[in-house]
Amino acid sequence: QVQLVESGGGLVQAGGSLRLSCAASGSIGSMLAMNWHRQAPGKQRELVAFITSSGRTNYADSVKGRFTISRDNAKNTVFLQMNTLKPEDTGGYYCNAQIKVGGIPRDYWGQGTQVTVSS
Length: 119
Description:
The chain is an all-beta fold.
């Protein structure tokens, strides 16, 4: 059984920063791509950032230059550093990872962590 657990969300004023973490635990073979998604109230979930196993990253246009995704492979953890936060960044942030378990790549999701940015 593999679990992803996010942490680091909270309430912050516009212009502030937060750092999200997502740690994977369980019978992990190898971590492949790791991603952060978010879902604002009344909106569809969207991809915010991803990082491949080799460290290649990509970001949604709305967060480029403000958010940074990184990973610690030794700890099976992915991070999302969020700077210059805006009220429109408010939402549930979900970690997603493709993990090889028993040699088979599988898709896993965390339970989410809430980020609220006040104006």
